[in-house]
Amino acid sequence: MSDIHQKIDQYYTDKIKEHGAVPQGVDWNGIESQTLRFDQQALLFQNETASFSVNDYGCGYGSFAQYLSTHYKNFDYHGFDLSQEMIDNALTQCADIKNANFQRADKPNKIRDYSVSSGIFNVQMEIEDGAWKEYIKTTLENMSQHSEKGFCFNILTSYSDKEYMRDYLHYADPCFWFDYCKKNFSRNVTLLHDYELYEFTILVRK
Q1: pLDDT for residue 18
Q2: Which pLDDT score is estimated for 178?
Q3: Element holding 129 (H helix, E strand)
Q4: Integer Cα distance of 206 and 63 in angstroms
Q5: How far is CA 66 from CA 7, 120, 146, 187, in A?
Q6: Are the CB atoms for 54 and 114 separated by under 8 Å?
Q7: What stretches in the chain show pLDDT beneath 70?
Q8: CB 93 within 8 A of CB 58
Q9: What is the pTM of this model?
Q10: Cα distance between residue 55 and residue 146, in whole Å
Q11: CB–CB of 93/32 below 8 Å?
Q12: Which tens digit of pLDDT belongs to each residue from 169-202?
């Protein structure tokens, strides 16, 4: 796992240095698709009327914290990332969000109501398929352990158009991960694959 983390750290550190605190800095196409992606994740806690807490795995420069601050008032956000460069940018970008905190880490420091992750399973690079699948499983197990009410994640879909697929990216079978989450985490699992991006989102409610 440490070798995988090191490769991920270097990849995203290079991206944020190249592009800055914009969607391209975390390897996304633009703000519109990023917002659409966050809309799917927010369905996990759409029924919350009181205060709730969130762990953000691979928080990047804090864009999900910014999204939450425009949609919710009562939340406690903890973002962490493998890249110190990302954390430094997050602290700057989100300095005015008083209920958000950030740290460089590979896992959260405590259990919270929900956990989210966006895009952390997409960039496989030259890592072998079996090792990458185990990395995903291990991370999902960690997300489950640190989530009281539920968690969610997204991955590029294996149903993507072949001509647009890239060798260094990971395209997952949504049916496999839906089945895996049903069998290992909860009976209440939602697969979202209808929002016009080449990916899927899975919501796990406990």
Answers
A1: 86
A2: 98
A3: helix 129-145
A4: 26
A5: 27, 18, 22, 31
A6: yes
A7: 1, 22-23, 25-28
A8: no
A9: 0.93
A10: 8
A11: no
A12: 999 999 999 999 999 999 999 999 999 999 999 9
Structure tokens that stand for 39 in this block: 């809309």
For residue 140 the two structure tokens come to 């999902």
Token pair for residue 159?
A: 């149903």
CA angle 85, 88, 92 (to 5 degrees): 140
CATH of range 2-205; options 1.10.3720.10, 3.30.360.10, 3.40.50.150, 3.40.50.720: 3.40.50.150
Which of 72, 37, 75, 36 has its CA nearest to residue 58? Answer: 37
Q: Cβ atoms within 10 A of the Cβ of 164, count?
A: 7
- The DSSP 8-state label assigned to residue 82 in this structure reads S
8-state DSSP, 193: -
Alpha-carbon gap, residue 89 to 66, rounded angstroms: 13
Alpha-carbon gap, residue 22 to 46, rounded angstroms: 26
